[in-house]
Amino acid sequence: MRVVRNILTAAAIFFIFFGLQYLIGWHARVFLSSLMADIPTVIYWVCFWFIALSYIVSRLLEMWIPGPFARGLKWIGSYWFAILLYSVMILPIADLTAWLLRDVFEVSAHHSVLAAGFAAVVIYLAILVRGSWNAWNPIIRPYHLDVSKQAGNLEQLRIAVASDIHLGTLVGRRHLRQLVDRVNELKPDIVLLPGDVIDDAIEPFKRNDYGSIISGFQSKFGTYAVLGNHEYIGGKIEEFVMLMADAGIPVLLDQSVKVADSFYVVGRKDKSADRFRGSKGEGRLSTEQLVADLDHSLPLILMDHQPSALNEAADSGIDISLSGHTHRGQMAPSHFITRRIFELDWGYMRKGMMHVIVSSGYGTWGPPIRIGSRSEIIDITVHFDKS
């Protein structure tokens, strides 16, 4: 029964995906035929499907013959995903506009199609331009938190947080260098990276020597990272951990570090660890297990990539919980979905004595487009009990 259900689900996804692609292609052909001389059918559809399937083709090529051609297709395909998503909303409006112009305002069919088509193109371009600007121009998001614990000789702690960098083909050296520069301008005491440092494949990290750039974070107490779901999807966990160690950044795998005898950084494996168990059958520990042997009189700062176990963290005595993963939906109205899935999909909340911050992330997955979401760096100033 389960196999039949999986087959039906896959068939439904296949039908929706290719059906929507065909509708986009049909609308584009009607518009182009009204704009210029008719394009030969075969040539048009070959070119259209080449663009529509470019992301899928690029991922297949990356596995066998990685190179500039595969990376170029990935760029095209990534932006096409944004077109695909927003076509669900734009095309029905364009059809309604063309119908109203033709049947209500008695505009000719030719001019109705042109007017609706040009309006749709303007909307697409506005989304791509504004979305790209939101993705490539990060903002600093400040938070001030009070933790009623003493932290050694520290009266306050400044933490820079960058989740979901997604280093790969699209998010590259320039965006990473901007991150390092912006973080260093904050003069943080510590830098924390709560998962999804890479975008699945580890090959771009090595080829582009991202380690030499990410090692440039400057802070008093160093930089720490945890794994996200995309590191697990990539499947090269041990190699990634070694590359980060070479860059001077420990990846905490269900581990904690006591920093300056003043506070703890607790790094939890991503939720995906339970799904992508290796040959050793290793999942992840609970937050309670992670902090059981720690001195709870000191502040406990947790990095857990997905904000899916907040009650557990609060009950375990965590003072600050830091997560990412959601991208705040990345492209509206997807944020309505993340808001339904997670108790907190972005921003700040107080849960008992625990401060919770979920970042929309620094990089992007898929299209480098953000609508209703911004690329962000979190700047946290923690004030401790002075008594």
TrEMBL record:
Annotated CDD domains: MPP_YkuE_C (cd07385)
InterPro entries, per the entry: Calcineurin-like_PHP, Metallo-depent_PP-like, Metallophosphoesterase_sf
GO terms, molecular function: hydrolase activity
Gene3D superfamilies: 3.60.21.10
SUPFAM superfamilies, per database record: Metallo-dependent phosphatases
PANTHER family referenced in this protein's UniProt entry, alphabetically: TRANSMEMBRANE PROTEIN WITH METALLOPHOSPHOESTERASE DOMAIN (PTHR31302:SF0), TRANSMEMBRANE PROTEIN WITH METALLOPHOSPHOESTERASE DOMAIN-RELATED (PTHR31302)
Protein name: Phosphoesterase
Source organism of this protein record: Paenibacillus baekrokdamisoli
